[in-house]
Specification:
Elements: H1 13-30, H2 33-39, H3 44-51, H4 64-74, H5 78-86, H6 106-127, H7 134-157
Helix pairs in contact: 1-4, 1-5, 1-7, 6-7
Length: about 160
C-alpha cells in the first residue's frame, strides 16, 4: 500500500490505520467535520484525507495542531489517547489541572446510562444484519466513545464529591 521510498519509517500500516480511525471517531464526537472546520485550520477535504484509509491517502496523517483542536472539540483526547497507546502509554486525567469540577449528580449517572444504552442499541442494530459493514462499526465506536467521555467526566468530578 505504501509508495516505495528510500526511507524506513517506524510507524506501521496498522498504526497509521489506528491513527486514522481515532481521527474519524474524534470527528464524530466533535459534531462532524463541518463543525471542526469552523474551529480549526483544516478544510473538509483535508479532514477526510486524515481519516481515509484509501491507498491514495495512506501517508496523510492529521497534523498535531489539528489533532489537538479536534480532541478539544470532541471533549475527550481520542486522538492523543490512540497515539499514546501506540507507544505503550495511556492517558489519565490530571487531577491537579484546573477544571470545571462539580459535585456528581443523579444526572451524571443518567447521562452515562443513556450513553451505555446507545451502545447497546448500536450493537443490536449491527447484530441484526448478517454481516456488519463499516458504517455499523463506526456507529458502535461512536457510541462507545460517547459513553467513555461520560465516564471520564464522572472521574474528573469525583474530586469534588
Amino acid at each position: 500500500m505504501r509508495p516505495e521510498t528510500d526511507r524506513i519509517r517506524s510507524i506501521s500500516e496498522e498504526e497509521v490505520r489506528t491513527a486514522k480511525k481515532a481521527a474519524e471517531a474524534a470527528y464524530a464526537l466533535a459534531g462532524g467535520v463541518s463543525v471542526i472546520t469552523l474551529r480549526s485550520r483544516a478544510s473538509i477535504p483535508q479532514l477526510s484525507k486524515y481519516a481515509s484509509t484509501n491507498a491514495e491517502n495512506a501517508e496523510t496523517l492529521i497534523p498535531i495542531d489539528v489533532a489537538i483542536e479536534v480532541d478539544r472539540l470532541a471533549g475527550s483526547p481520542v486522538i492523543a489517547a490512540a497515539l499514546a497507546r501506540m507507544q505503550g502509554f495511556r492517558l489519565v486525567p490530571d487531577e491537579t489541572a484546573p477544571a470545571d469540577r462539580r459535585k456528581i449528580t443523579e444526572g451524571d449517572a443518567l447521562d452515562f446510562m443513556s450513553e451505555a444504552m446507545d451502545v447497546v442499541e448500536a450493537i443490536r442494530a449491527m447484530r441484526q444484519k448478517d454481516r456488519a459493514d463499516c458504517a455499523d462499526k463506526r456507529a458502535v465506536a461512536k457510541e462507545v466513545h460517547e459513553a467513555i467521555r461520560e465516564l471520564k467526566e464522572i472521574l474528573v468530578n469525583l474530586g469534588e464529591g
